[in-house]
Amino acid sequence: MAASSPAGTAAGASAAGVLAGQVALITGASRGIGLAIARALAADGADLCLAATRADGLARADAELADMPGARHLEVLDVTDRAAVRAAVERTLARFGRIDILVNNAGIHIARGFLDHDPADFQRLLDVNLFGVIHMTQAVLPGMLERGSGRIINIASTAGRWGSRNQAGYNTSKHAVLGLTRCVALEVAARGITVNAICPGFVDTDMLGGIKREYGQMGIDGEAAIGGMLATRVPMGRAMRADEIAGLARYLASPACSGMTGQALTIDGGMLTA
After folding, report:
1. For 185-208, how does the pLDDT look when each residue is reduced to its tens digit (9 = 90+)?
2. The architecture CATH gives domain 19-273
């Protein structure tokens, strides 16, 4: 399912910017980090394809971006469905003629002790968090190779850089995303395409609220647990904001970042240095 919106017409809005004439496809774009990245890239002049699993969420995101320049195209999409991914990419190409920036942001979280994880938990996490990235990248990358330019930005996690209690499946999926990022970056580095990952720590989004609820299902006070971790493990003492993650994505998508590839950039309030 697809829909399109015209350029924003708010006073002062202009398509001029470092990404003017470029097209960004963002998964998980209806809220949280994905929506913040959409706003940041639109502010730099990019046209957008917003992809998410729910039409109502996409409609709300489209309305929230109505003040931004550039055109928008909406795709209701399950990134685990390889055929649907390829169809969505084809529709986006039919709409804009190109995809210059791919932001693989769609993801899920499951919190359980390792012995309570069943194989279906691991499979679901890998299907969305890893194979979603694979499907999207394999669908978009050929066009980038043909043009000799492109930016791929994978939203991973600090969970991809270390171990964590009660989220073995999630951490496994994010470790895999970082490995994939490095390997694809090496293969396309000489073809004008960069592939990088962002590793956020705790971010004040709906997912953080979901983690608190999952902790509650394990008999753990989620509010107290997250609050304690922010106080003791994050030197800044707070969760990151979605717009802070978006600022890093904005840099990775920009011409200023043409020499960086295969990197996993951490933004976590100092957590990994504590």
Report:
1. 999 999 999 999 999 998 988 777
2. 3-Layer(aba) Sandwich (3.40)
